[in-house]
Amino acid sequence: MRRSVNLPRFIASRIRSRTERRSFSSTVTRIGIASIAIGLAVMMVAFAVLFGFQGTVREKLFSLSAHMKVTRYTLNQSYEETALPRYSRLSRSYKTLPDIAHFQMVAHKAGILQTDEAVQGVLLKGVGPDFNWKSFGQNLTEGRLPEFGKDTTDSKEILISRSIANQLQLKTGDKVTLIIMQYPPRPRRLTVTGIYDTGLEELDKQLIIGDLRLVQKLNKWGPDTVGGYEIFVKDFDRIDQAVGQVSKLLEHDQDLHSVVKEYRALFDWLGMLDRNLGVFLTLILFVACFNMVSILLVLIMERIPMIGLLKALGSPNWQIRKIFLWQAVSMILKGLLFGNILGVGLCLVQQYFRVIPLDPENYYMSYVPIDMHWEIVVMLNLATLLLVLLVLTIPTFVISRMKPVEAIRFSK
Known about the structure:
Largest sheet: 10 strands, mixed
Family: Belongs to the ABC-4 integral membrane protein family. LolC/E subfamily.
Subcellular location: Cell membrane
Strand content: 15-25%
GO biological process, one term: lipoprotein localization to outer membrane
Number of helices: 15
Order of helices and strands: HHEEHEEHEEHEEHEHEEHEHHHHHHH
Transmembrane segments: 31-53, 277-302, 323-353, 373-399
Radius of gyration: 32 Å
InterPro entries: ABC3_permease_C, Lipoprotein-release_system, MacB_PCD
Number of strands: 12
């Protein structure tokens, strides 16, 4: 049994093979392929940079400030915390909550770091053995992490930020005095074991990390008293559901704070980047579609005599239109292929070699971050293919208005 031939596809392949040897048609075709490739590559890089930027900022923020905080309900707006019991209904039952990944105890104390030459107001964050050092460790630039909980006495080791270290001219191993502003003043001699840098100036310029037991001693609290609970969720996109789960375990005098509400300006800014990206990608797709429509019209106008001949031989309009759609599909697929190679290649080069730097004072990071989501890459390919192909059906309607006699005479 002989296999039937797909006539539109066969004619399109013959036109394509001849087009490759003709200067004008080949140039136009290359322009169409290049427009698809560059548009797809730019969209892939834009998404990878956006996700990388948002993820890096969030990771830096969450390394110092948890997804949720629980404190004693109070109208006091100062840094001084009202004590919470270490053991409560929430601290005993948080493991039963499906969206909770980590739970830790902390306490804060305001004070002044003093050296022989300068002073700096700081906020001491006391942490214990349950602190999420894995998340915070990426911010460490010098020295080592402090060691808490190895003995029964409070540790005199602290971590300070790069901003504070520059302000006080401190380096790892230096001694510094922490003065607690109360009467009488209570100085503590501490050792700088490490220096961190998140790039988040609002936090870096004031936060130092020390032993939870040191804060407990300064506040005259017992070992079963803390300043608050910090909670991390498994999936940040489900933070609203996690807030609802935690709220059910709170006692009447406990208050829950979400990081989204606490740093509303930062998250609004990240959300604005999403909206700007949407406008940017819409413009890119519009330009790519416009280019392809123009190129297909040029190819149709160049083949007017062939269209007239096919119509004279009895070919229906839809069959002739398929010929040019097959040509368009070929250009789109080649454009997608080169676009994927270019886009993925640029992302991988930046991800592993970090060739494009950034000013950390303005962008919170020293290089352009990349976070590739392969499902987004697939979605962009499918969206580009379907959208451009749908738009390209418009110029093929010109074929329906051509008359065979006039089309054949066009070549004379």
